[in-house]
Amino acid sequence: MQELIEEYTETLHDVEKMREKAAEDDKIILGSMASDLKYAIQWMKTGRQPGNRRGVERLAAYQKEKSFDPLEMQKFFRSTCDSYSWTEDGREENAITEWDKIRIEDALSVLTDREKEIYLMSRGQMLSYDDIAKLLCVSKSTIQTTIERAENKIRQQISQSLFSFTG
Predict the structure, then answer these.
(1) Which of 70, 83, 131, 145 could disulfide-pair with 127, CB 3.0 to 4.6 Å?
(2) Mean pLDDT of the chain, nearest integer
C-alpha cells in the first residue's frame, strides 16, 4: 500500500507542475485531477473515506453488532409461537435447544412488554423499522429508539447474568 501511496504522491507532484505551465482551460482539468489524487491519497493513508465524520468504529446503534445471533433469535421466536411450523411436514428441524431458550428468556426478561413486542417483531419476525412503525401506528424513530433501548438493556443483562451467552 505504501508503494501505491508514493506513486500517487509522485503523480500529484507531476500534475501540480504541469498545472503551473498549462493554459487556462487545462488548469481546470489538471486541478480536478489533483483534487482526485489528494482524495485517493488521503483515503489510502487513513483507511477511511475523506470527509466522513464517523469512522466504521462509530456506526449508528442500529448498524452495530447485535446482542446475539439473529438466527438464534428467530428460532427462539418460532419456538414460543404456535402459529409457526418448523417445516412443511411439521418437524422441528434445527429447533432451539432448551438451554438457549432459557438464556434468551433471561436476556429478554429485563424488557417491558412493549419493548419485548417491538424487539421480537424486529429480530424474531425480521420486520423492518418502517413496517413495525406502520403496524403499531408510531413513528419510525420511536421504533429505532425502543430497539436501541432494548438492546442496551439486553447487553447489560447478559453481562450481569449467571447464564453466559458465550459458547
Answers:
(1) 131
(2) 77
